[in-house]
Design brief:
This protein is an alpha+beta fold and 295 residues long. It contains seven helices and 13 strands.
C-alpha cells in the first residue's frame, strides 16, 4: 500500500476566508436591519453556508490517495468518505497544469482547487479531489472521471503507466434522457417544496376568507420578534402571499438549475430542490409563529 498526499494549495485558505467573510458580512448587514424576517433569513444563510464550508474544509485537510494492489482509494473526511477506483475500470488518464477550466455543479472550488462535481473541458463529468491546480491528473472511468492532485505527480503517473493505463483525452458526454420527473429523488422533493409554498401562499388567504384573522395584524417585526408595524388583515394576507410568490420564483429557478445540471450529472440535479425546500420551510415557520402569537 502506498499513500500519496496532495499539496496544501490555496483551497484551505480560500475556505477559511470564505467562512470568516460570510459571518462578518452577515453580522455587518444585520446591524443595519431591524426586520425579523430578513434577520432570520440572513442567520439561516450564515448557518448553512458556514456548515457547507466546514464540511469541505474537513474533506480538504484530510484528503489522501491510497494505492492498493488492484485499486485507488480516495480517502477524505477522516476516512469517513471513500471513493474506490478499480484499475481494471480505468479507461485512461490525462494530465493538466494551470487553472481548472470547467463548470462547477456541486461542491466548492475555483480555478485553483476543487472538491466536488464539475464538467471539465476535454474530460467531462468529473469528481474533483484537487487541492492545487499546479498538477492535476484526471482518471477516466466509464461513468465518471476523478481529478486528483498528488504532490509527487511524476511517481503517480509512472504508477498508472505500470498498470498499462495510457494518457488520453476525453470529450464531454451529455445525458440522453433528461426527464427528471420520472425519478423519485427529484419528484418527491419537488412536490414537498410545492406543497409548502402553496401552504404559505393560501393559508393566510383562507383564514381571511373564514374571518379568522383579527382586524389588525402585524406587518413587520424587529429582531426580537416585537411588532413594529401594524396594518389591516388584508395587508397582512397580501404580504404573506407575496412571500409565497417569491418562493414560487425560487422553485422555478431551482427547477431550471436542476434541468441544466441533469444534462451532465443527474446526482447534482436533485440538490437544487432541497434549496427550495429550506427556503419555503423558513417562510412557513415564520408565518406559523406570527399566526400562533397574534390570532
Amino acid at each position: 500500500m502506498e499513500i500519496y498526499k496532495p499539496p496544501v494549495g490555496l483551497g484551505l485558505f480560500f475556505i477559511i476566508i470564505t467562512i470568516v467573510a460570510v459571518n462578518v458580512i452577515v453580522a455587518f448587514i444585520g446591524s443595519f436591519i431591524n426586520s425579523y424576517v430578513v434577520i432570520t433569513l440572513l442567520k439561516l444563510f450564515m448557518v448553512v453556508a458556514t456548515g457547507y464550508c466546514i464540511y469541505y474544509l474537513f474533506m480538504l485537510i484530510s484528503l489522501k490517495y491510497i494505492i492498493r494492489e488492484n485499486e485507488i482509494e480516495i480517502d477524505s473526511f477522516f476516512s469517513l468518505r471513500k471513493e474506490v477506483i478499480k484499475f481494471k475500470d480505468i479507461l485512461g488518464y490525462s494530465y493538466h497544469k494551470g487553472a481548472i477550466r470547467g463548470i462547477k455543479l456541486s461542491g466548492i472550488g475555483n480555478n485553483f482547487f476543487g472538491i466536488g462535481r464539475s464538467i471539465i473541458d476535454k474530460v467531462g463529468l468529473t469528481y474533483l479531489y484537487v487541492t492545487s491546480a499546479k498538477n492535476v491528473i484526471y482518471i477516466k472511468t466509464e461513468d465518471m472521471s476523478f481529478g486528483i492532485s498528488p504532490e509527487n505527480v511524476e511517481a503517480f503517473k509512472e504508477l498508472l503507466i505500470s498498470k498499462n493505463i495510457k494518457e488520453k483525452e476525453f470529450q464531454v458526454k451529455k445525458q440522453k434522457s433528461n426527464d427528471l420527473f420520472k425519478e423519485k429523488r427529484f419528484f418527491i422533493p419537488f412536490i414537498i417544496a410545492t406543497v409548502i409554498i402553496i401552504f404559505v401562499t393560501l393559508n393566510p388567504f383562507i383564514l381571511y376568507l373564514n374571518k379568522d384573522l383579527p382586524i389588525t395584524m402585524p406587518l413587520n417585526f424587529n429582531e426580537s420578534f416585537v411588532a413594529i408595524e401594524y396594518g389591516t388583515s388584508k395587508q397582512f394576507v397580501f404580504r404573506q402571499m407575496t412571500y409565497g410568490v417569491l418562493n414560487m420564483v425560487i422553485l422555478v429557478c431551482m427547477y431550471y438549475g436542476a434541468h441544466f445540471s441533469s444534462k451532465y450529472d443527474r446526482k447534482s440535479a436533485y440538490k437544487y430542490m432541497y434549496i427550495s425546500i429550506i427556503m419555503a420551510l423558513a417562510f412557513a415557520i415564520i408565518q406559523l409563529r406570527i399566526l400562533s402569537v397574534f390570532i
